[in-house]
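User: We ran a pulldown and think these components assemble together. Before we commit to crystallization trials, I'd like a predicted model of the whole complex to look at. Sequences follow.
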Amino acid sequence: MGKRKQRLLRALGRSAEGVLRGLEEAADRPKQLDYFIEVMRAAYVDDCLAERLELNEPRPKVVGIYCVMAPEELVYAAGAIPLRLCGGSHEASCAGDELAPRDACPVVKSALGSTALGAPSLYELCDVVVVPTTCDAKRKMGEELAQHTEVWVLDVPHVKESEGARRQWLEELHGFKRDLERLTGNRIKRRALKEAIAMLGRAQHQARRLYQLRQAPVPVVRGNEAALALHAFAFDRADRWTEAMTRLNDELEDRVRHQQSPQGAQIPRLMLAGAPSIFPNWKLPNLIEEMGGALVTDESCVGDRYLYDPVGAVENTMEDMMVALGSRYLMPCTCPSFAPNDDRLFRLRQAVEDFQLDGVLYLVLKGCVIYDFELQRVEKLMRELGLPVLRIETDYNPEDVEQLRTRVEAFIEMIQENIQQEGGA
Amino acid sequence: MRVTRLRWLVLAVCFVLLTFGGRMGVHLGSYLPTFACYFTGFDSYGGACFLAPLQFALAAGSVDGLLKALLYVVIAILLIIPLGSAWCGWVCPFAFVQDVLDLIRRKLGLGYLRFPEGLREGLRPVKWVFLFIMLLLPLWAAFPILVPSVARHLNIPFCELCPVRYIMPMLTGRASYMGVDLENATTIILSGLGVFFAILTLVLSLFKRRFWCAYCPMVLVLSFFRRISLPKLKKDVQKCTRCEICYNVCPMDVEQVFKEREKENVTFPDCVLCLACIEHCPEDDALRATWAGKTFFRSTRKGFSRRRKIGVDSSKK
Ligand code: SF4
Ligand code: SF4
Ligand code: SF4
Ligand code: SF4
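Assistant: Here's a predicted model for the assembly, 742 residues in total across the polymer chains.
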């Protein structure tokens, strides 16, 4: 093992462990959260994902996936294991600095750094990685990754509306299916795909259950905890994750019933909008909760948006299932790499209502142009709905935490005052 | 009960009642705005399509005939108002035939065909052409000012073209109505086309959901009354995620329901109110069906999961 890799592994482990310890320090965390903490620990601290996933001989193929447009159903149906690779580590992004232009976003730098050095080693586990053509940086990242590993580029149309784009997308998925068959040597049969859709359907059902439980008038779980549980899907087998999530949801349901809350009813309810917070970059989720806010929802593609939408196959013919997958992974996706992206504004409007939000924190990762572009529209919408928005531009560097803390604190205090005034008036 | 199953039941019962009801003493007359073919025979059908008598009445060429035609239209409208396009989704015996063919396709594991938008757009006028043939040619037959030798044989021009006429009588043993009518050039052309449409419909219904319904003038007639008829499909545009599921499950390929971003009423002209879209929409209350303004069926994520046997035993919810 190279020295650089070892150094990166140690540094990664330290910061990841810091986040996980922080979560474990909350004595009133849900008991069932520990499973997800362990998944993350295996991936980033102990660096033992292969053992945890029991990738025994004959070792199944592992398919690394970026973004959220590649149907994991197909991966499972081919007998392979998907892992989600979007990077969230400051140390890895430093290692990736020299591999990407200075203005590239930390997600891409971190993924490049982790791939180049093979740390955490889950990046080395992947026999192939899938890169959907979402934003410019991800697209070019795919090209760079090809120096280190086999890369499949999935051509995602950026205008969802047009019939031609949707047809081309379906073609693309058929190509993805053929590639998976070639990689694994297994033909994807109707039955296997049906079962994979059902398996992920159960996962999506539990994710949606959590989504609904978090709408309770008194928050029953902290946002930094719930987001971690959802995120853990990236590094777990879908069926095991679903079992653990079912237990967590059952526990939270009990809390709703007994009106137990780590936070109380008067707490400002906030959304973390904009770019995703990817583990171990838990800066903002932690800050919001520490500064007296309740992070009740986000729109992150490793968070609330990850498993929200279900696959609507009805006929279970191969064509019907492929069409259903094509729809699921393209149409309801509100990633700002699509244009026009009015769908996102509709989703946000609905989230404000569902979660009775009091304010929105908007994360702009340095270098991410598309989320920043849409900020204006989101601000306009929130003005109309009477919600304050706080734009926070940062990267994965922990140095600005104290500075951010002051801003988040002031924002939450302002909202609290508003709530009290309204309550008094 | 799942809506799909209920619909199959109603559709099957209507098929039997309307096609063979006459043999069991059911006589609803030939006033129905649905393709329960008149040519299955008076002794067999329990209720029949009003288009044949309407054309006969028009072709009679008398004041009496015109009054009779008016009566048929008025009765049809009175029947359309309470059910709207649900006549096509839930009653039509020929819809049942097509849905059975569709079921066979599914059982064979074959996917469905979906025509590209351009082609669908291009074929849209076909049902208008059928409608004009149905309303204007009988009048020509009644008042044969031009080319009387052709006009004479145009009493029921649309029925001659209607594929149903060559398919349903087969089921009631009225073989004499089938095949090409060799009497003269006009009838050869009309019935030849009819036989061609019938074969086309039977074959393509195995590949495309509700193949014939896209060209059927009846669904067009029903759509004229979609504002005043009582059942409606409604959408909450804010709750919709545009997941496209409602489009994929729609047998009529109605695309506007998922695309709509403004209007609440999404009862579009081709919709047959089969309610499959509501059944499979995964968003709470994004789609609903109302009757006279009252909601009687709404979409829920729970329902979506339950239909897929998810979350029934694995969790408490
Ligand atoms: S031939 Fe067609 S239009 Fe004529 S009565 Fe039969 S179903 Fe109706
Ligand atoms: S459109 Fe279809 S369902 Fe409606 S009357 Fe015509 S054949 Fe029957
Ligand atoms: S199925 Fe429901 S949520 Fe999906 S596009 Fe249709 S109406 Fe919208
Ligand atoms: S829009 Fe809905 S109710 Fe109308 S035909 Fe399509 S699936 Fe059926």
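The longest helix of chain A spans residues 190-213. That may be worth checking against your pulldown data before setting up trials.

User: Thanks, that helps.
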